[in-house]
Structure formats: C-alpha cells, structure tokens
Write a structure and sequence with these properties.
The protein is an alpha/beta fold. The protein has a domain of 244 residues: NAD(P)-binding Rossmann-like Domain (Rossmann fold). It is 44% helix and 16% strand. The strands form three sheets. A seven-stranded parallel β-sheet has the order 3-2-1-4-5-6-10, with helices on both faces. A three-stranded mixed β-sheet has the order 7-9-11. Strand 5, helix 6 and strand 6 form a beta-alpha-beta unit.
Length: 352
C-alpha cells in the first residue's frame, strides 16, 4: 500500500495510472484539487478495488494521520506541490504554504506514524520526496550538469520553497531517523500536463491560431524528461534507493526553449496542417523575459544509473512525438481543463 500525495496532478497522476495498471498493489491518493488537480486524468482507474481517493491538504495533520492509521501504507510518495514558476512570482504565499509548511506537516504525520510501526513494517517503510532541479539555480553554458552535490542556489520563489522542503526532508532523516529518499528531476513533459506549462501551452495555442509566446530570446536551456520515464525512476528509487540519499533524474535531453517550440510546430505541420498550409512556426512571438529567469538547467543522472540501474527509455524526439499525438487525440481533456469544466466533473463524481 502506497500513500501518494498530489496524485491528481501531472506527474502524480501519471504515477498513479502507471502503478495501478502495473498491479503494484494498493494505492491511496490524497490531493487538495487545486486548479492543477484533475480527477478526469484518473477516470480509467476510478473504480479499481485497490484504489482510494481523498480530497484534502497535506498540511491537515488530522486527516493525514487518519489515512495512515486506516490504510497502513508502507510508503508515502510526496508529489504535492505548487510548481509553476510564473505563478510563484505573482503569488508566492501559496508556494510557501504548500511546499514548505505542507511538507513540514506531512513529515510530522509520517514521523508519528513511523514511530508506531514495528518489525518488518518499520524496516520497509519509506518517505519519498519528489523535488526539482531548479533548487540548484542556474548554469553557465559550458558548466557541468547538476550533480547531487551541487549547492542549492534557488532563484525563484518556487525554487526557494522546494529547496526549503528538501532541507526539511533531510533534517527529518538525520534528526528523527525517518527513512527518507529525495529525487530532483528535470523538466517533465507528456500526457495530462496542465496547459500553462510550455509544451502543452504551445500545442494548444498553435491549434487555436493563437501566438506561441517565447520568453526573451528563447535560448534558455532545459533538460527534458518524459513523464513515464520519471515515474519509473521514482519507483526504482523507492525500492532500491539508499536511505537519506538524493537521486537526480534527468532525460539527457538539453534543448533551448525556441528549439522545443520549433520542433512542436514541425510535428503539427505534419500531423495536423494549418488550413492555409503555412507553418505553425509563423505564430511564434517573443515576449518580455520573466524576472529571474534561469538561463540553463542540466541534470547529471549518472548516480541513479550506476547505483540503481535506471536510464530513460525515451529520447526527446520519441517523447515529443508521443506527447503531441496524445494532445491531438485528447482534445476533450484539454478543453475541459481550459474551460474549467473539469471542476464540474469533480462535483458530479465525488458528491460525497
């Protein structure tokens, strides 16, 4: 039994789907259902007998403790987080509350539960905290990729809040002996991503004939990780990772933002040409850069490869083709998110 927090979001939702479809065991999903939490993502497993969903906040210690006692999970995987940099710039308070205070309360609930366990239950329990490469700050063009020993130098309210949560997790291991694991991943992409992030935003805007906004000169570099690869890496760390350790998870796909957008346009030109036969690339529009925009992220994932045997299966070329095709095939899901009607679906399906 695994307790997943934030399991209705993009990465958490993909993990829940993969885990249950692979019959890994029972799963309890706790999600606050903020704007980015979408239960329509999980329709296919809604009635699975080994799956339970609860709407709630990781900061609600009473609720979390109740779920721990009732379901007695052997692991907690914490995906729950506010994660959009732009939103953190305009409204940092929610990021502080969820990513720092929420993680603290979740750790405390886990610690108290862990102290009640005995024997093999205690030996096998794990708390896995999912974090980001943005905690490391920015890299110069020729600098080596981030390793697990890089100092933390966060540059946005989002990155700072995740860095703080990482430090709390580390402290609960060294001070209280809570059996923790931490992962720091690069930029994820793939099915079910909320269309405020670059790749789904570009696909959606392109199809609607809207501008494709690019910050600054578009030469910011990110390492792109296909979401199903990330989920497999998390499962690998959960079962093979050394307690107290951090594992960087990357896709080995450094790309500039402008090249990502141009690639999407090229794929759409082939799969769903514009009615005027012009390229979607004509919709690219450069806009003012955002404050504190990190120039480059890159992940050195050699530790998880050498110690745990995990490597990504998807290249960016294969992953982005799958992603574009998924959004073309699932326009109803996209429209539900963009219109906000996915929230109506929640009230209909979860009236209790």
């Amino acid at each position: 039994m695994i307790l997943v927090t934030g399991g209705a979001g993009f990465i958490g939702g993909n993990f829940v789907l993969q885990a249950l479809q692979a019959n890994v065991g029972g799963l309890v999903n706790l999600d606050k259902l903020t704007y980015a939490g979408n239960l329509q993502t999980l329709q296919s497993i809604h009635h699975f007998p080994n799956y339970s969903f609860y709407q709630g906040d990781i900061g609600d210690k009473s609720l979390v403790s109740k779920l721990l006692i009732q379901h007695r999970p052997s692991a907690i995987i914490n995906f729950a987080a506010e994660s959009h940099v732009d939103r953190s710039i305009h409204g940092p308070q929610d990021f502080i509350q969820t990513n720092i205070v929420g993680t603290f309360n979740l750790l405390e609930s886990a610690r108290l539960y862990f102290d009640t366990l005995e024997g093999s239950e205690k030996d096998h329990f794990r708390f896995l905290h999912v974090s980001t490469d943005e905690v490391y700050g920015t890299l110069e063009k020729s600098a080596p990729a981030f390793s697990e020993t890089n100092p933390y130098e966060p540059n946005s309210p989002y990155a700072a809040s995740k860095a703080a949560s990482d430090h709390l997790v580390r402290a609960w291991f060294h001070t209280y002996g809570l059996p923790v694991l931490t992962t720091n991943c690069s930029n994820n992409y793939g099915p079910y991503q909320f269309p405020e992030k670059l790749i789904p935003l570009v696909i959606n805007n392109a199809l609607k004939g809207k501008p494709l906004p690019i910050y600054g000169d578009g030469l910011q570099v990110r390492d792109w990780l296909y979401v199903t690869d990330h989920c497999e890496a998390i499962y690998t760390v959960l079962h093979k990772g050394k307690l107290g350790e951090t594992y960087n998870i990357g896709g080995n796909n450094e790309k500039t933002n402008i090249s990502v957008v141009q690639t999407i346009c090229s794929i759409l030109d082939q799969l769903k040409p514009r009615s005027d036969q012009k390229s979607y690339a004509e919709q690219i529009t450069f806009v003012k850069d955002r404050p504190g925009h990190d120039r480059r992220y890159a992940i050195n994932a050699s530790k998880i490869a050498s110690e745990l045997g995990w490597k990504p299966k998807e290249t960016f070329e294969t992953g982005i083709c799958k992603t574009v095709q998924w959004y073309l095939d699932n326009q109803d899901w996209v429209e539900g998110v963009v219109s906000g009607s996915y929230r109506d679906w929640v009230s209909k399906q979860y009236t209790e």
